[in-house]
């Protein structure tokens, strides 16, 4: 009983229970992430990304806006300014806080994700447990992440693969003219698993099925986003005829979008910056499972803040693509450890993030 | 920083962190619940129910087996005996514990639910927070529960309704010859909301639609389980033609069953004893929401243990039918408070259950 009494006193002192709450305070600043190599996918290339770090009473989160979805650091900040007085006084009211945000603000998922992460970080810190423990998840489960090889000359792609030789899985960006040649080059320097991601770069089911057929001999684990996600007929044809499993990512944002892709794919790619955070990502995992869909957790270009947040749910996924902190040269934070292609979660409270001594 | 250090010491003393875990210990005993009135529904009548109370290292849960699903106290105990050495050493590993149980043991949802509840109670007690707070839910949200009026003579049903005059919603059991007369009788003594539950007692869509048409004038909120859940064509016809919303309960057990009922109903009735506990109930809520289905949380005949567990997720539901603790005369426990037809959650740690001084 000593335990209970002491805890009660501690909580009382902090105002976590009882009536003396203070409104939570949001602060934010931008970070300019520099990519080690220009990051080219079928539709775009990036050398830097401006993200927004959000702090709420000591909890930390990251908004990783993607121009493809119409978001950028300015839209994130605009959203944060709009909602900063509406997050209440208690991180444990996260359900109410986030559903109110969703009712009032449409879209703006990166900003919502940053708020969600910061609240979870704060909850974990208040309870003195890592967030994965809050969710009843195994923090020691082996979490294998893929390492992404952006589009480049075949020689450069070989070099990038060799540079990252410890990884157990590579995700090769495709969806361009010479993509078969690119995958061939990567396969020449590794026996590890290879996934490919066309980012909707193939123009229709015909082209996709031709490419998939040509890719078969390189032992491809799965193909992500072969064509435009709006081409449902094309996706159905690909799903029916492809010998390689198909994952959907683009424009599959939240749990409500999942039923529309059932029967058109084998799995989905969930990203906190697309769906609005850890809480919605968990919903998506549950909905995917109910439909027998496989689950990948992926990322935008983000620092260790966003990656550590996504990795908290890692043990619930079949596949992880949580590597963007490794693709940048100036990550301001440390979160989990990555070794031998595996993510080891921190057992620090909350998301386990600390500023890096740079 | 004092806070953190003190917490660390406390956790170390209890062995919650670090490597010194002891296997968790399951104990159980049966309880014979006596119904105040014989509880008659379209297919059966009960005067008592034998449930099983499960305790795990101070956490408490309840198995409420229903003969309709082939469960009883003996099957629960058999299941508990089978799994008692397989629940590990750490309640925070609940995801792994429960998914291992599901892999090894099919069905047996009441036993699984009791283990789930006991683990959540234990987690809440270890963290010194109520379980609804662990889930980030608002413990103060108004939770209106229906009160169930079992099948009886119209006069007796009037009397039962008058006895429970504080409630804001009644759930009237129907699905028998004279059910319109029964609903008429209840309506004569109350202006409150009325739901009806046929427990699959109407033989087909025709009979259901005729009854629904006759019920309209008594202002019915929704109709639960009009016909056999296997009659999907019948359900589709009812859903299309009924002017009153339709809920499904019977044989809709876990989240994986939900997609099969999409388009055939307006909402679903989730029960911990059907799905295997709080964790799966949350999954079901997420899946229902992704499909735009409404959510009711209901119960079997159970004491305040099972009801308090289900009520933890109450704020996520549209409708609650959590009244069975009020239908029995010898509830051995106290959990939440019920007043004016509303459930007030306890703010005690875990499920907030204490033995009643009888």
Question: What is this structure, in a nutshell?
Answer:
Chain A has helices spanning 2-14, 73-83, 94-104, 109-127, 131-134, 154-163, 179-189, 205-215, 232-241, 272-275, 278-290, 304-311, 324-327, and strands at residues 26-41, 44-56, 59-63, 143-144, 147-149, 169-173, 193-197, 220-224, 246-248, 267-270, 294-297, 319-320, 333-334, 337-339, 342-344, 354-355. By secondary structure, chain A is α/β, with parallel strands linked by helices.
Please characterize this protein's 3D structure.
The structure is a homodimer of 358-residue chains. Chain A folds into 2 domains: 29-129, Enolase-like, N-terminal domain (Enolase-like, domain 1), CATH 3.30.390; 134-355, TIM Barrel (Alpha-Beta Barrel). In chain A, the strands form 4 sheets. The first copy, chain A, has an 8-stranded parallel β-sheet with strand order 5-6-7-8-9-10-11-12. A 3-stranded antiparallel β-sheet of chain A has the order 1-2-3, with helices on both faces. The model of chain A is unreliable at 1-19 (pLDDT under 50). Chain A has helices at residues 2-14, 73-83, 94-104, 109-127, 131-134, 154-163, 179-189, 205-215, 232-241, 272-275, 278-290, 304-311, 324-327; strands at residues 26-41, 44-56, 59-63, 143-144, 147-149, 169-173, 193-197, 220-224, 246-248, 267-270, 294-297, 319-320, 333-334, 337-339, 342-344, 354-355. Chain A has 13 helices and 16 strands. In chain A, 36% of the residues lie in helices and 22% in strands. In chain A, α3 runs antiparallel to α4, α6 runs parallel beside α7 (179-189) and α8 (205-215) packs parallel to α9 (232-241). The first copy, chain A, is α/β, with parallel strands linked by helices and 358 residues long. Chains A and B meet through α1, α3 and α11 of A and α1, α3 and α11 of B.
